């Protein structure tokens, strides 16, 4: 159950991310998660949105360079050792984490089976193995529809 992440490459200059955000806003697209990685000349903005196909289309139409990739959205127990416990599952399976970031929806936390969760996006070296490892250890993985509803 992968989630589609949109990566937007843009010049690293004032107003670039604002222009992207306004493009999404004008089209009633909700940003559920966002992270920015920069270099001296360009930035890569990675976003999870409520409507991937529409967002990709309007961003391309507005002149942005857009690509889609599969990532995993997983629930991490909202405890001091919650993140470490989930990372240990990936480590024990020999799965490398390329990057990760937190998802924020309308709700700060999600409760699953009586446990408060924070949602994280994981870009890993092997999605299939990571999903299998998470499933074996009872880590809740969220689909695109579930994230869109946040």
Can you describe what's shown?
The chain has 150 residues and is of the alpha+beta class. It has 2 domains: 3-69, VC0802-like, CATH 3.30.2130; 71-143, VC0802-like. 31% of the residues lie in helices and 40% in strands. The protein contains 5 helices and 8 strands. Strands 1, 2, 3, 4, 5, 6, 7 and 8 form an 8-stranded antiparallel β-sheet that branches. The chain is globular. The mean pLDDT is 90.
SSE layout and pairings?
Layout: E1 3-11, H1 16-26, E2 31-38, E3 42-49, H2 52-61, E4 65-77, H3 82-92, E5 97-103, E6 110-112, E7 115-124, H4 127-136, E8 141-142, H5 144-148
Summarize the structure.
The protein has 150 residues and is of the alpha+beta class. The chain contains five helices and eight strands; from the N terminus they run βαββαβαβββαβα.
Percent of residues in β-strands: 35-45%
**Structural class, judged by helices and strands?**
alpha+beta
Number of domains: 2
Instruction: Describe the global form.
Output: globular
What's the average pLDDT?
A: 90
Rg from alpha-carbon coordinates: 16 Å
CATH superfamily of the largest domain: VC0802-like
Give the biggest sheet. Answer: 8 strands, antiparallel
From the coordinates shown, what is the CATH architecture of the largest domain? 2-Layer Sandwich
